[in-house]
Amino acid sequence: MSASIAIQGLGVERRYGGFRALKGVDIAVKRGEIRGLIGPNGAGKSTLIDVLSGRVRGQPGKVLLDGKDISALKPQERRRLGLARSFQRTNIFPALSVEQQLRIASWAVTDAGIEEVMAELNLTALARTPAAEISYGDQRRLDLALALVGRPSVLLLDEPAAGLTVEESHGLATILRDLANRWNVTVLLVEHDMQVVFSICDGITVLHLGQTLAEGGVAEIRADKRVVTAYLGT
Ligand code: ADP
Ligand code: MG
To answer: What are the residue boundaries of the ABC transporter domain, all occurrences included (predicted)?
Structure first.
């Protein structure tokens, strides 16, 4: 049964002091799927990505990659198994060139395919340019490129379009949809632009106050009154 599930969290909890940021979340992303992870600020989206990627530990809770329990593995070990992530804030070094940063990211993996990743994300012409000198939109594509080095099988993306114009967000969304199709990458996408989520996701999980509020296809979630209410904060 778990064969078609690429990444799964089971009963994931996370406390910060006495505060329960995640209260037993179950999530399963099928192979090849783009699943949107949405919810109001503070819902626990980034914390869930942190637990799945290994940046923080679930307390308790399990993380399975292709059905294998990886809960005890460090982020770099998960990365080597094909589980990559990006961060909500850009994670790049301003002084290094686009290509230098991709080379650093490739230390964690074999067969990095850096040229290919740059080509996919329209970064080839900027390979030798320091990150500080490229536009913010290009920097966000570099963030995505860093996660794609080594062609991971699963991508956890935390607001990759944050700070982009509407047009740039939609451009990024198109790239993501295309990558998921052609590279057969499984994607868990945290994104607040609902237009983007509704246009490229196969399924959606809604988090609210550290719990799963709703789960389903795009049409189902759009029509769900609880989701609308959670977003309106009433
Ligand atoms: P989201 O990404 O959905 O906006 P987060 O996962 O960032 O939400 O945060 C969920 C809750 O956990 C928030 O109330 C946040 O303040 C709290 N939180 C997150 N990280 C920490 C931390 N390192 N220390 C204390 N509280 C945290
Ligand atoms: Mg967040």
So the answer is: 7-234
Residue in this structure with the two tokens 């993996």, named with its chain if needed: 109
Crossing angle for the helix pair 136-148 and 98-105, nearest 10 degrees? 30
Question: Which residue, 50, 51, 131, 138, is CA-closest to 92?
Answer: 131
Q: How is the chain split into domains, by residue range?
A: 2-232
Measured between alpha carbons, how far is 185 from 2 in angstroms, rounded to an integer?
17
Q: Which two tokens stand for residue 177?
A: 């949809």
- 34/36 Cα distance (integer angstroms): 7
List of the chain residues with pLDDT < 50: 1-3, 234
- Using the atom order of ligand 1, give the atom closest to the CA of residue 207: 3
Asked if residue 41 has its Cβ within 6 Å of ligand 1, the reply is: yes
- Render pLDDT for 123-150 as a digit per residue (tens, 0 to 9): 999 999 999 999 999 999 999 999 999 9
42 lines ligand 1 (CB under 6 A): yes
Domain 2-232 superfamily per CATH: P-loop containing nucleotide triphosphate hydrolases (3.40.50.300)
